[in-house]
């Protein structure tokens, strides 16, 4: 007996695939690979698979030498701390939803694209052009899997008609009707297609001193300087990172900075010789990564704080909204998701797609899953979930793209 859509995704969610920086044990990712091989046998029988230290590149060969297509969705997830009403790796189904870490970010999307290919492969269908699927095991941490795959494909001279990775999805105030067991959606829905993403940079700020005993504290110690620095960054954010309207998307863009980690003395009665602050900075396209780094480093210097770059990041080029590929995706969304309004946007979060800009002029980010704003907020938070019924729309969306080809 065949598994239903929700049963397949349930098995994918039940594979705990939390990624961590410095992780070398890949057994749980290989167990996940084994699961998807079993869930989508027709696709994997027809495709070639290459494993890049836990990240997968799947090639489904086409009939012609037209430009290939690349579809992406990572299989690693973030940690599942805190109190969950539904087990994070249980894949529980209730209230018309499937619950668990990765349902929306992004095993649900991965399921939809692989299931679409599976159903077509089962009929003997062969795509017009080569179709590639990329799924990394470290998108949530280092992005090394996607980087390695991109470098390999670039060396082989492969260029894609378009690349489609995870995105915001289709935001709609849907509701679930328990009496008839189906979703009720409003007539208007917003489908945001990200044509680029902010550059992600990780910086370390260090304030130093000669240290000393806590019983004789001098003024302006390292932690005090870091505290003033953080408070003044918030106070003068618009001066450090000016806002600007993006002409393509019509959105007001600004570099943002989040203070995430602070380290100082390990002893309670010792003034630190060095206090360190780590931040995550998301650079807007108009200011760029380089200019954003210089601006915040100059500001930090006024507090006698040095700036170290832990991860530089990059400013991704923006896809052309007038390109045939972008227009095709928009047309398919509007036709397939009735009442949807497509709008270009720039993602504030990072995706593996940024590494693929060397392989295509049209790198887009969009997830064909209808969800609520509340469900989007559960990404990286507790009780992540998606509606079971939204899976069918996602599968049929990808089937249409695969059948059309480049």
Write the layout of secondary structure elements.
Elements: H1 5-13, H2 27-39, H3 41-46, E1 48-52, E2 55-60, E3 69-72, E4 93-94, E5 97-99, H4 107-122, E6 131-135, H5 144-155, E7 162-165, E8 169-171, E9 175-177, E10 182-184, E11 189-197, E12 199-208, E13 212-213, H6 222-235, H7 237-240, E14 244-245, E15 252-253, E16 256-263, E17 270-271, E18 274-283, H8 288-301, E19 305-311, H9 324-336, E20 340-347, E21 363-365, E22 370-371, H10 373-377, E23 385-387, H11 390-404
Parallel strand pairs: 3-6, 3-7, 7-21, 8-22, 11-20
Antiparallel strand pairs: 1-2, 2-6, 4-5, 5-23, 8-11, 9-10, 12-18, 12-19, 13-17, 14-15, 16-18
The largest sheet is:
6 strands, mixed
What low-confidence regions span 5 or more consecutive residues with pLDDT below 50? none
- Overall structural class, as computed from helix and strand content, comes to alpha+beta
- The helicity comes to 25-40%
Shape: globular
Number of strands: 23
First-last Cα distance? 35 Å
Strand content: 25-35%
Mean pLDDT: 94
> Counting H and I runs of at least 4 residues, what is the number of helices?
11
Strand order of the largest sheet: 1-2-6-3-7-21
CA-atom Rg in angstroms: 23 Å
């Amino acid at each position: 007996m065949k598994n239903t859509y929700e049963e397949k995704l349930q098995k994918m969610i039940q594979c705990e695939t939390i990624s961590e920086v410095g992780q070398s044990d890949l057994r749980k990712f290989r167990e996940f690979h084994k699961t998807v091989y079993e869930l989508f046998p027709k696709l994997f029988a027809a495709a070639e698979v290459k494993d890049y230290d836990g990240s997968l590149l799947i090639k489904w060969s086409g009939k012609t030498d037209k430009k290939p297509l690349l579809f992406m969705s990572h299989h690693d997830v973030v940690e599942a701390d805190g109190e969950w009403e539904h087990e994070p790796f249980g894949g529980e189904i209730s209230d018309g939803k499937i619950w668990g870490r990765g349902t929306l970010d992004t095993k649900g999307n991965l399921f939809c694209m692989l299931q679409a290919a599976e159903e077509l492969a089962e009929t003997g269908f062969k795509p017009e052009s080569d179709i590639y699927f990329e799924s990394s095991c470290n998108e949530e941490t280092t992005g090394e899997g996607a980087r390695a795959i991109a470098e390999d494909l670039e060396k082989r001279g492969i260029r894609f008609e378009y690349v489609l990775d995870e995105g915001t999805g289709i935001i709609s105030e849907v509701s679930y009707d328990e009496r008839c067991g189906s979703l009720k959606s409003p007539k208007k829905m917003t489908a945001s297609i990200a044509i680029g993403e902010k550059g992600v940079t990780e910086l370390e700020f260090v304030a130093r001193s000669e240290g000393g005993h806590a019983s004789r504290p001098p003024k302006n110690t390292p932690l005090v300087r870091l505290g003033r620095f953080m408070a003044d960054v918030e106070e003068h954010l618009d001066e450090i990172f000016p806002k600007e309207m993006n002409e393509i998307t019509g959105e007001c863009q600004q570099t943002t900075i989040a203070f995430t980690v602070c380290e100082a003395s390990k002893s309670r009665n010792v003034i630190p010789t060095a206090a360190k602050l780590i931040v995550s900075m998301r650079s807007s396209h108009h200011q760029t990564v380089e200019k954003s780094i210089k601006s915040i480093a100059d500001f930090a210097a006024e507090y006698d704080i040095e700036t170290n770059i832990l991860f530089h990041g990059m400013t991704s080029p923006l896809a052309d909204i007038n390109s045939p590929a972008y227009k095709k995706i928009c047309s398919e969304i509007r036709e397939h998701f009735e009442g949807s309004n497509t709008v270009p946007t720039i993602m504030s979060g990072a995706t593996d797609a940024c590494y693929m800009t060397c392989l295509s002029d049209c790198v887009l980010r969009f997830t064909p899953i209808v969800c609520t704003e509340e469900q989007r907020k559960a990404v990286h938070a507790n009780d992540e979930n998606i509606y079971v019924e939204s899976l069918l729309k996602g599968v049929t969306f990808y089937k249409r793209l695969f059948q059309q080809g480049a």
